[in-house]
Design brief:
2 copies of one chain form a homodimer.
Chain A: H1 10-20, H2 26-40, H3 46-63, H4 68-85, H5 90-119, E1 128-131, H6 136-147, E2 153-157, H7 164-175, E3 179-182, H8 187-190, E4 196-199, E5 203-204, E6 210-213, H9 216-225, E7 230-233, H10 268-274, E8 279-282, E9 289-292, E10 295-297, H11 299-311
Parallel strand pairs in A: 1-2, 1-4, 2-3, 4-7, 7-9
Antiparallel strand pairs in A: 5-6, 6-8, 9-10
GO molecular function (chains A, B): guanyl-nucleotide exchange factor activity; translation initiation factor activity
Subcellular location (chains A, B): Cytoplasm, Cytosol
Family (chains A, B): Belongs to the eIF-2B alpha/beta/delta subunits family.
Chain lengths: 312, 312
């Protein structure tokens, strides 16, 4: 599992980064790791150099089970490399890429704050907000709204199987925000009392849709049926070059997900924990607006940004 | 908690019935209990007689936390009493009511079989069926389809918080039906692969909508968005005289359901288990057809039947 070009283990480095700083976001850790690869490699030709970086990126994606957000970070870095490689020699490209990567890592931390700043005017006094699962960017936005002395209430979905909603509820209580956890099956029941829905994203795709914790898609369907605004929050480095055509067209898809069992003693708990999907895809028609550090966007605005970035 | 008119305890009798025969349906147990009340009472005037029976019915409803299906049984019985009281004296009314009640209890057992018979043509070879939670009438229909050598697959929702879907999955495995449990949050994910949705009902209301285990409503919304047929199964004695205007207009509604918490240490597990709704209301526009022992009906057909029954 070591990347070509030496004894440096990109996967180990990546896991170290995440372990040392639990608040680091995965695309940022991925870019940091690839910067390290670039620093360590000793390629003499441009094609060798690019091959090493691409291989390391592939190793990293594979080792993280093709995580959408790791892929997003890798893709941003590879695109940067492709752009820099056109004009320059190996040495210059190497230095420029390291500096671009470090710059990305430095500014990425601010992205979450920018999203919170851009999104917070949408949270108003006396609103009831429904959030799904645990998302750092949502917690950031709600934290900012509390600091602005806004008073609002939050419903949080339990978000099985890992019950990550409970973590969000705990944090909200500490912030002094009245909140309550809601069964994943009770979203339809509660939607009538909700003023707006906020979700985070693992990745925002080229269609303008988003990939996020399982349950996001049905939340969006239910919100649309009840004509409630559905806002997604995402840092721009989560934009990924994917165009899923269905729920089963995601990089995390495995054919044994939700496979039918027909004999013997089946441990249903294991099925729920391990053989159910962890992510789903929400098509753009269900998303009212996206709050990103590039501004408030419609789903089609995201497509435009992505095309611009990758055509540059 | 004893009903007026003697030492007979209608609530205790009801709970005994349910404990002795776990397969008894609640409306049937309620009617059986009220028959016993009628047998035990010693009223001398018609008005006293009706007062005793109405009081017993009220005590029973209250003791079962206004359970929709117990209410359904009680309402059928009270309607029968009102009808018989018009023409006859106390003695005759008493005897006729006992005989009508016993007759109801005897034939009720067949209703579930009739629903299975009427619904089973809708299950065809090679279909993928999504069911919600555990429902005896659905298990009856699927059992019949298996006996007819139909081959199909079933997705079952986990149906938190009591995880009743796991019980359904166990029974289906024993019947040799390939099945898999699905997170309550993964219904949107899986709907594309589903051919039809089957749900049971605690009660079918005057609008033609239904009251059932929480999650049914959002299942129906998601099915409609994916243009999949959504069939509800219900014995006709589950038709109830209710016209809910929203989710919060059900007899089981409590104001502390999903109340916001704003301080201290909250046990979220308790919130999920005890302060989340157990039932929700699915409006008629989401229901494709209802399979009942009176035949296959549209939601508006149910309204007609209910009006007919209570106007008679």
């Amino acid at each position: 599992m070591t990347a070509q070009g030496g004894a440096f283990d990109v996967v180990e480095y990546y896991h170290d980064l995440v372990a040392k700083d639990p608040s680091i976001s995965m695309p940022v850790a991925a870019v940091s790791s690839l910067v390290k690869v670039v620093e360590q490699q000793r390629a003499t030709t441009m094609s060798e150099f690019m091959k090493i970086v691409r291989a390391a990126s592939e190793v990293l994606k594979e080792a993280t089970h093709r995580s959408i957000s790791v892929s997003a970070g890798c893709d941003v870095f590879l695109q940067q490399m492709a752009r820099l490689s056109h004009a320059q020699g190996v040495e210059e490209c190497r230095d420029a890429l390291i500096s671009a990567g470090n710059n990305f890592v430095m500014t990425a931390g601010q992205c979450r704050d920018q999203v919170a700043e851009i999104g917070s005017p949408f949270v108003r006094d006396d609103q009831t907000i429904l959030i799904h699962s645990y998302s750092r960017v949502i917690m950031g936005l709600l934290h900012r709204a509390v600091k602005q002395n806004k008073r609002f209430r939050v419903y949080v979905t339990e978000s099985r199987p890992d019950k990550s909603g409970l973590r969000a509820a705990d944090e909200l209580l500490k912030l002094g925000v009245p909140c309550e956890v809601v069964l994943d099956a009770a979203v339809g029941y509660i939607m009538e009392k909700v003023d707006l829905v906020l979700v985070g994203a693992e990745g925002v795709v080229e269609s303008g849709g988003l990939i996020n914790k399982v349950g996001t898609y049905q939340l969006a369907i239910i919100a649309k049926a009840a004509k409630k605004p559905f806002y997604a929050l995402a840092e721009s480095y989560k934009f990924v070059r994917l165009y899923p055509l269905s729920q089963y067209d995601l990089p995390t898809y495995r054919s044994d997900l939700l496979a039918f069992k027909d004999s013997g003693n089946v441990d249903w708990q294991t099925e729920l924990q391990e053989n159910n999907p962890t992510l789903d895809y929400t098509p753009p028609e269900y998303i009212t607006l996206l709050f990103t550090d590039l501004g408030v966007m419609t789903p089609s605005g995201v497509s435009d940004e992505l095309i611009k970035f990758y055509l540059d």
